[in-house]
Design brief:
Blueprint: E1 2-5, E2 11-17, E3 20-25, E4 28-34, E5 37-40, H1 44-49, E6 55-56, E7 65-67, H2 74-84
Antiparallel strand pairs: 1-2, 2-3, 3-4, 4-5, 5-7, 6-7
């Protein structure tokens, strides 16, 4: 897992999963990289900040997500992460096998 800072927005990390990458912000799943596309969960704030974003399927059988074309825009990315964070579900507690 890699941890990076996104223009002062906080911790961003990723985890490889079945050939793709799940992206976390402060331990909450925000989206992922699927077939070289950065897709975000379609929260209310993400839709407001990316009104022109196309909805795409990350993989067959999944829910549609927002395609982010402007990942180089650091201020937009930081604003997206901060706005999305309160709308995302809390991370699930990990259970240990006995």
């Amino acid at each position: 897992m890699t941890i990076r800072t996104c223009s002062g927005a906080g911790e961003v990390s990723s985890r490889a999963m079945m050939g793709e990458y799940v992206i976390y912000y402060r331990d909450k799943v925000i989206g992922g990289i699927y077939d070289d596309r950065f897709l975000l969960k379609p929260t209310k704030s993400a839709k407001a900040l990316l009104p022109e974003a196309e909805m795409q399927l990350p993989y067959e059988g999944a829910k549609e997500m927002l395609l982010v074309d402007s990942i180089e825009n650091r201020s937009l990315m930081a604003a997206l992460l901060e706005a999305m964070y309160p709308e995302l579900p809390a991370p699930k507690k990990k259970t240990r096998a006995k």
